[in-house]
């Protein structure tokens, strides 16, 4: 047992390198960077920990509310290959792109859309105990899709008997974008069984803007204009949705049982039911023949997700412990896109079934008083059935694509001296549709003084191309069409061999805690070979977008984090990120990667039971086209909130997001103006 104390001892030495707010660092542990709770492998990289207390301070309803206030993590809009992309956002860390960020719930992957454009609005904040964000490649532990970082949403633990009910309502100053949010969580113990139940309903009304359009009737294969078509050259104005009409229901449970002193068994069951609807400017087939582009369409989604998993934790002896997970995530998407101006067939092209089956098994061995080894095996199979990847553009028949990953990883954490720790890791992935990949990671954490740490990290990463990048056939994307790299259709006359991305990340950071001030500065450089990006060809009705490899991409950056406790009633936190991205083959910057982002938060307790919070968020200019000819304006948003603890059971809260009604450009997604909200939280 003496050796096991090493796990917590080392964790206390390194601590968490960055905190979203003013959480006491010595009270925080991480699991995402290591896959084992008391192990520090991976903490030589940058880690952000967002606690339940932090989430309650900003009165967040969904994951999107939380991420909007974290610098260097920004939303990328307009990448989803459907007209509804105007209201869909994906997360990018340090400019690595939406597909380079892996989102997990309790360490498990979710089935869903490529790039996860819905996830930010699906996950209720009330079910979250904490969020761990590891910046930089984590491929040595998680394989593909973790080239930019990992976001692990850790749900509330099954512990003491407790229940929480949270009710929130909000809308903008014009009575639009209404949101009703109801969340309930309860957990407890009955005899030797621990249980947790949760449920949530997120109901939102749409936010739209009027947009003008001029229809163009084309031959769907060649792109030639059909001048004689009665729908050609018709103009008008129609609303475009920037925030869906949506109803999202989540319900789930977890049951845990200790089989004996050394073995425990857990079982999870989660269900998502989602309905979304909006109007957009897109394309639709005309019953009399031809494809009508730039026409109003109605898009309706009926989505379901069912997740089931079991996990077995076991203590083999004092030095050896392990965990095995088996889980399936099944996603059923049914989309109907219908023309508004004319009679035409209902398109179900963007419907799909997605299944992820995974088996993971990890072992942690305390070799001696200064050496901990963690190793693991993973088998994962991802299956996508979709008509969006059917090479016949007019067909709604499903095509099946399947990818298998077989992986082995090992990592070694060594306490070299009382003040110096080293971490080394390696992974090998056998991939059914790409070259096999080997990645390594190594890091050092040096305690310079009692209050100062120096850390350095080197990590390799990779990302295999996803199904959309390889096979999608979309008749409408921005001002053209979108085809996967393997597709030959119409103006795209040849296939392109899309290679996996490969990256190297170098990072060095200095952190210091002196009395009431925590400060950290991070320098990082990510070099990506064969980065997968959308490129365009042709013009007019023959224009199309496809995925190709950029030869070399270089991303440099600096992050500054400051947390200052003014007194027992007030604290400040400041975060700033500077990014310099470049496609080395063209000397152009990457799109939708702001050069500068920053946030300032101020929390002040007016009375013992009344607290306020003020948040300023700044996002700098960013290019919206690959030629770097179009930029979006920078902007600053200011949010304010008040929380009133009526008693130990009831808390009331209210606030205004974007209090000065700042406008942002449409390429950057949803902006509903000043947003007013109020809610109540009951703990019993």
In words, what does this structure look like?
Keywords: Cell outer membrane, Membrane, Receptor, Signal, TonB box, Transmembrane, Transmembrane beta strand, Transport. Pfam families: Plug, TonB_dep_Rec_b-barrel. The chain is 5% helix and 58% strand. By secondary structure, the protein is mainly β. It has one domain: TonB-dependent receptor, beta-barrel domain (Maltoporin, Chain A). The protein has a 22-stranded antiparallel beta barrel. The chain is globular, with a radius of gyration of 25 Å.
Q: Report helical residue fraction.
A: under 10%
CATH-derived topology: Maltoporin, Chain A
Low-confidence stretches: 1-27, 38-42
The geometry reads as: globular
Mean pLDDT: 85
The largest sheet, given as strand count, sense and whether it forms a barrel, is: 22 strands, antiparallel, barrel
Distance between the termini: 37 Å
Give the structural class.
Answer: mainly beta
Query: So, the CATH homologous superfamily?
Result: TonB-dependent receptor, beta-barrel domain
How many strands?
37
Cα-based radius of gyration, to the nearest Å? 25 Å
Please write the CATH class name.
Mainly Beta
Per DSSP, what share of the residues sits in E-state strands of 2 or more residues? over 45%
The total of helices stands at 6
What's the number of domains?
1
CATH architecture: Beta Barrel
Membrane topology: Multi-pass membrane protein
Pfam family, one: Plug
Domain TonB-dependent receptor-like beta-barrel: 260-659
GO cellular component, one term: cell outer membrane
């Amino acid at each position: 047992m003496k050796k096991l104390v090493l796990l917590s001892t080392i964790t206390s030495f390194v601590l968490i390198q960055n905190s979203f707010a003013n959480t006491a660092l010595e009270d925080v542990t991480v699991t995402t960077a290591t896959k084992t709770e008391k192990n520090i492998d991976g903490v030589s990289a940058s880690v952000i920990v967002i606690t339940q207390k932090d989430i309650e301070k900003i009165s967040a309803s969904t994951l999107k509310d939380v991420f909007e206030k974290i610098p260097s993590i920004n939303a990328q809009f307009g990448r989803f290959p459907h007209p509804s992309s105007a209201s869909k956002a994906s997360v990018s860390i340090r400019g690595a792109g939406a597909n380079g960020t892996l989102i997990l719930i309790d360490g498990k992957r979710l089935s869903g859309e490529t790039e996860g454009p819905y996830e930010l609005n699906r996950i209720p904040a009330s079910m979250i105990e904490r969020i761990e964000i590891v910046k930089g490649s984590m491929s040595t532990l998680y394989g593909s899709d973790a080239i930019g970082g990992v976001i692990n949403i850790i749900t509330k633990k099954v512990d003491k008997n407790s229940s929480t009910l949270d009710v929130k309502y909000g809308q903008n100053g014009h009575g639009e974008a209404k949101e009703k949010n109801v969340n309930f969580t309860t957990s407890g113990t009955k005899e030797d069984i621990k249980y947790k139940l949760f449920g949530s309903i997120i109901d939102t009304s749409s936010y739209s803007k009027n947009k003008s359009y001029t229809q163009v009737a084309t031959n769907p294969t060649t792109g030639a204009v059909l001048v004689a078509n009665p729908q050609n050259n018709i103009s008008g104005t129609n609303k475009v949705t920037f925030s869906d009409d949506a109803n999202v229901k989540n319900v789930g449970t977890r049951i845990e049982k200790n089989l004996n002193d050394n073995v425990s068994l857990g079982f999870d069951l989660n269900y998502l039911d989602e309905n979304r609807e909006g109007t957009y400017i897109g394309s639709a087939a005309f019953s009399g023949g031809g494809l009508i582009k730039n026409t109003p369409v109605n898009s309706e989604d009926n989505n379901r997700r069912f997740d089931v998993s079991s996990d077995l934790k076991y203590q083999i002896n004092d030095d050896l412990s392990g965990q095995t997970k088996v889980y399936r995530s099944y996603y059923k998407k049914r989309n109907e896109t219908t023309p508004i101006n004319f009679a035409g067939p209902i398109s179900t092209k963007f419907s799909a079934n997605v299944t992820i089956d995974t088996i993971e098994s990890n072992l942690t061995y305390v070799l001696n008083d200064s050496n901990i080894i963690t190793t693991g095996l993973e088998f994962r199979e991802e299956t996508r059935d979709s008509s969006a990847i059917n090479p016949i553009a007019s067909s709604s028949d499903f095509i099946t694509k399947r990818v298998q990953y077989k992986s082995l990883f090992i990592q070694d954490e060594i306490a070299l001296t009382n003040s110096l720790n080293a971490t080394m890791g390696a992974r090998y992935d056998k991939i059914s549709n790409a070259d096999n990949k080997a990645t390594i990671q190594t890091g050092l954490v040096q305690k310079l003084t009692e209050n100062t740490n120096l850390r350095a990290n080197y990590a390799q990463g990779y990302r295999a191309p996803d199904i959309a990048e390889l096979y999608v056939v979309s008749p409408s994307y921005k001002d053209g069409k979108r085809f996967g790299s393997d597709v030959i259709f119409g103006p795209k006359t040849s296939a392109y061999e899309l290679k996996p991305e490969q990256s190297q990340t170098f990072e060095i950071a200095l952190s210091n805690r002196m009395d009431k001030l925590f400060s950290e500065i991070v320098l990082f450089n990510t070099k990506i070979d064969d980065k997968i990006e959308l490129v365009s060809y042709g013009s007019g009705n023959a224009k199309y977008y496809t995925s190709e490899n950029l030869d070399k991409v270089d991303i440099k950056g600096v992050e500054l984090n400051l947390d200052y406790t003014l007194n027992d009633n007030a604290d400040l936190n400041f975060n700033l990120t500077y990014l310099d991205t470049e496609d080395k083959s063209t000397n152009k910057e990457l799109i939708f990667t702001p050069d500068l982002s920053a946030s300032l938060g101020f929390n002040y307790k007016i009375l013992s039971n009344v607290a306020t919070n003020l948040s300023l968020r700044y996002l700098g200019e960013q290019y919206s086209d690959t030629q770097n000819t179009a930029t979006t304006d920078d902007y600053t948003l200011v949010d304010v909130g008040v929380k009133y603890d009526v008693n130990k059971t009831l808390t009331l809260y209210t606030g205004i997001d974007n209090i000065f009604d700042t406008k942002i450009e449409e390429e950057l997604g949803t902006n509903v103006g000043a947003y007013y909200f109020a809610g109540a939280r009951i703990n019993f």
